Amino acid sequence: MAGQELAGRVSCTKPYGWDKGSVEVAISPWSEQMGESDAEAETRKHRVVAYDYGIKQNILRLLVDHNCEVYVVPAQTSAEDVLEMKPDGVFLSNGPGDPEPVTYAVQNIQKLLGRVPIFGICLGHQLCGLALGGKTFKLKFGHHGSNHPVKNLLTEQVEITAQNHGFCVDPDSLPSREVEITHVNLNDGTNEGMRHKSKALFSVQYHPEASPGPHDSHYCSPSSRT
Amino acid sequence: MPKRKDIKKILIIGSGPIIIGQACEFDYSGAQACKALRSEGYEVVLVNSNPATIMTDPELAHRTYIEPLTKEYLEEIIAREKPDALLPTVGGQTALNLAVELSESGILEKYKVEMIGASLRAIKVAEDRLWFKDACRKIGLEVPASALVNNANDALRLCDQLGFPLVIRPSFTLGGTGGSIAYNKEEFGEAIAHALDMSPVHEALVEESVLGWKEYELEVMRDFRDNFVVICTIENFDPMGVHTGDSITVAPAQTLTDKEFQRMRDAAAAIIREVGVETGGSNVQFAVNPENGRMVVIEMNPRVSRSSALASKATGFPIAKIAARLAVGMSLDEIPNDITKKTPACFEPTIDYVVVKIPSGSSRSFPAPTARSELR
Q1: Which of B87, B153, B280, B316 is least surrounded, with the fewest CB atoms within 10 Å of its CB?
Q2: Which residues of chain B register pLDDT less than 70?
């Protein structure tokens, strides 16, 4: 797996819009507590451009739930083309393989940083790590499954998360003056989330969109963070 | 936050005699709690009326009283021992009821004993069926339609509204004692009279039947930091209508999709927060209509329950031991995982095997079986 650039191979070939929200099997007590109704109250939608490195549909559904107008673009789309779409935020998706060889994505993120809010998940998080000057490494076994405890260092609370990754960002390799570590895996202490101290960038290693998995991390959204 | 330093001596109420409704599972949980609190450096005083238990072994608590589990005896013990805190959540329903009595009669206040593990309010909300239903509705969860009655006439009027079969549950009894299911007016009249008789407050709940629905239990824990984990899911092989104690039960739940399970998990989290169980374990029960997936909340126990013992054995997560530590102010991420020793107890066990509980008993001693809500 190390050294393999797979994101480009699974990405969509043409951009497309997405407007389907999540289908609720029934009432979710969680949505009331997390104040999702606030997002609905806003009339203007946030325009989000989502880079598809192998994106999961539930992420798109949740973005729509969070009052976003979503456009999905292929992994190789240039930062210039994305900025031309005048997005309120850019989303970096999950995806397979090693983040290191996905150099075009890292360069695009570097160009986008500071010009538009960025939110990344999984591979998107690892690419942010590289774009911020950090390093990634391959975990011995990887994190897979829906029961990984992650501590949010900002709130001191623990979320039970869904995860599926073989690579990881080395937190010590990140420039500590610019980047703040926000989430840590309680099982092995590895990095699970970070944010930029002055620019609008926030990313998590786990899958807050769940499906399958617990809904503890649904609060992670571009509108709530950036 | 590390464990509390302002309390030194903790009183634990045991489960009393091992009979139906006060099963030996609570000896296991009480013994675990004694060991956990001792190892954290607290002085443990134990009261139990049953000397034939593990928890009353001399080395488990610093001081063990074998006395009747009544308010009067407890007051004497409290006056003599002057404990700083009372942990009522590891001795089953008996201990919880006694703690409510001690609290409401002002004895705890008089001797400045703090109830830890569950507040009086949380116990009352969880135990009172109507308060509990209100709490569930408040957070948008469905419960079976029902009404509370204290006389036979009111009850009969309800039949027309709700239709048969109907479940009759007396308030404040153990193991569902005095509860039954009525299929027609004649049975209903008898059932109501019996239920009102059994209830210490002469009150019973008449409820829409969820007979035949799928039955689930979630064993959950919460700490003072509001961390929430599901330790184990249990599915009853026998549907609603057969008491959990009589049912074949399987852990983990077998017939839920991820979407259905996550909805149940969210609901359990919302309930434990709304009821106000700030630290410790709870057991939340759900019924799911196999026809359409409609989920209703059945009940919650704000304490270590019969199913906690099964859940502990099934997952290796010692619920009573961890609940005792949470009660003295530790958080789930501070307590080490009992099995790995390295990772914290703040996680959700995932098991790649199934654990099946099959009740055994002599069927010859029972007449022809009928569906009941009362544990036999």
Answers
A1: B153
A2: 1, 18-23, 174-176, 361-376
Q: Which residues are bridge partners to B283 per DSSP? A: B219, B301
ipTM for the assembly: 0.84
Rounded to an integer, what distance in angstroms lies between the CA atom of residue B113 and that of residue A215?
38
Tell me how far CA of residue B357 lies from CA of B80, B90, B251, B313, in angstroms: 42, 21, 9, 11
Active site annotation includes A42:
no
Backbone angles phi, psi at B214, to 5 degrees: -75, 140
Is A57 in CB contact (< 8 Å) with chain B? Answer: no
Name which of B139, B259, B347 is nearest A149 (Cβ-Cβ).
B347
Phi/psi of residue A115, each to 5°? Answer: -100, -25
Q: Give me the residue label for tokens 């209100």.
A: B134
- On chain B, the residues whose CB falls within 8 A of the CB of A188 are 343
Whether residue A71 contacts residue A15, with contact meaning beta carbons closer than 8 Å, is answered with yes
Structure tokens at A179: 């980047």
Contact between residue B361 and residue B35 where contact means Cβ atoms under 8 Å apart: no
Contacts of residue A39, Cβ cutoff 8 Å, sequence gap at least 6 = A65, A66, A67, A221, A223
Model confidence pLDDT, tens digit, residues A95-112:
999 999 999 999 999 999
Residues 6 or more apart whose CB falls under 8 angstroms from that of B369 comprise none
Residue B227 to residue A157, Cβ atoms within 8 A: yes
B350 and A151 in contact by Cβ < 8 A?
Answer: no
3 state SS of A184? strand
